[in-house]
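Trying the structure run again after the queue cleared.
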Amino acid sequence: MPWFDGALVEGPVPFDLSDRGLTLGDGVFDTALAIDGRLVFEAAHVARLAAATQALGFFVDPERMGQAMRAVAGGAGGLAAVRTTVTRGSGPRGLAPPLEPRPVLWASAAPLPPALPFASLTLHETAIRRNDTSPAARWKTLGYLDAVLAAAEARAAGFDEALFCNTRGRVACAGTGNLFAVFGSRLVTPPLSDGVLAGIVRAEVLALAPKLGFVAEERPLEIEDVLGAEAVFLTNSLRGIAPVRAIGATPFAAHPAVTALSDALRAEMGL
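Done. Tokens:
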């Protein structure tokens, strides 16, 4: 049962066809993991979504966001993906936003296969570039067409996910996750300035790493650096840590650093 603008709703959700989220992609969203009705890293998800709306120039009460997430998570058993979407609301024709926006907030939950968290995957380097010059690259905006097309390209090539480089040719991220490369005891992930989303699990791994004896770095990575790493893994809220088995024709084996991080993150997530 979805949550729409203040309450759980049975049946079809009413939607204004002039909503700027539909016509212009003028909005943001968040995806969180729910386990038996409990939201994992709830405070971080609410804070990031609230920061995203403020970055776009409109305000939604964070408590309302949390209420929506909890309402749909509470009705979901097992593992579920909780998606929360906020748009600027309706407005006049054209690009200029309304002077007094009336944001629209809704949330829904969808079941997830139990095998998804911490499952390994393969990556296909796409020629589509992540626009590191765009402020939108730092937020989960509603304009995800590049990721949609890159995912289709990766599947057609026989891979699970797409790997993006940015306009300067540096590795940025996957279509739905942040990337880490392992070099001995060092974990390296691209900086946010390279067109990277500030992932919730990315932040958790950066915080966990020193506790486990690893050195975590945020610095630019060339594709050659990544292909020469001892191991590569992705992070996102639904997968947790996903070990990468291959990028194109380059294989990667299981690695003790990824195993140690996965065990620690499982404990934090309550899995």
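The radius of gyration is 19 Å. Worth checking whether this holds up in the mutant runs.
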